[in-house]
């Protein structure tokens, strides 16, 4: 089918871009590693995806070669030409549901946060919990572990899978974990046992996040950490459930953004960015719920869909070590 749609996920450590056609088929995808949120990294990812899809690189102006652009991620408002922005929650759920039809629980572990998202039978967000205040169990945490054990990040999974003892790991803080790991090494404990024990501790912490939304099956793990075979195995053991991993787990958010660009093509954008780039271009997190006298429980009402959820944090969200919707 005709049409070219771009989804951009500008995360904390990686930039992802996906181009689809009018049927939602992925034409090209690119992932670029960054040190932090970076427009340069985003541009590299976009340029690579557009080139692979045969779309002119100046298509980001929204008029040449592309029929829609949606951005998501920490740096979503840094993406030029994006007609709409959506939160990672909406985009990861949408992309994962398309990649893994029938999914009911999405666990996304990225560079600096982790999310547990329940999805209904239509592939729409039902509930979510998010930890974005602590790097424990995220990609950054595994980088700290690899550095302390003096191994490459790609070698960490094999090392952890060779572990045979479950050691007590008291600190799950990325700031202090390195000191504790060095202390365990100084005791002469095998690096493989330390690696496996940390992976188990991370899985237990993720299980606590899942408990806020409830276990559902099938379970799909996405994000860069999903490429770590040990993380997948220990999470499956903690959940006592099979855990699926998409072929390209890092691009689910960008893919979801591209699908939302396709689905919203022809509809007016919810707003335009201000000169400062701070104006929210997206629809409210709970559409229709921001007006005077609105009753919050309508979010859980029959027929409500989170398909348009995006951007603006609702007053019904608790801010703390984890972010979760209050029970109604």
How is this structure best described in words?
- The chain is of the alpha/beta class.
- The chain has 2 domains: 5-98 and 250-282, ATPase, nucleotide binding domain (Nucleotidyltransferase, domain 5, 2-Layer Sandwich); 101-245, Nucleotidyltransferase, domain 5 (2-Layer Sandwich).
- It has 8 helices and 12 strands.
- It has helices at residues 39-53, 88-99, 139-149, 153-161, 174-186, 191-211, 229-239, 252-263, and strands spanning 5-10, 14-20, 26-33, 68-72, 84-85, 105-109, 114-119, 125-131, 219-222, 243-244, 317-318, 323-325.
- The strands form 2 sheets. The protein has a 7-stranded mixed β-sheet with strand order 10-9-6-7-8-12-11. The protein has a 5-stranded mixed β-sheet with strand order 3-2-1-4-5.
- A hairpin with a 4-residue loop joins strand 11 and strand 12.
- Helix 3 packs parallel to helix 5 (174-186), helix 4 (153-161) packs across helix 6 (191-211) and helix 6 crosses helix 7.
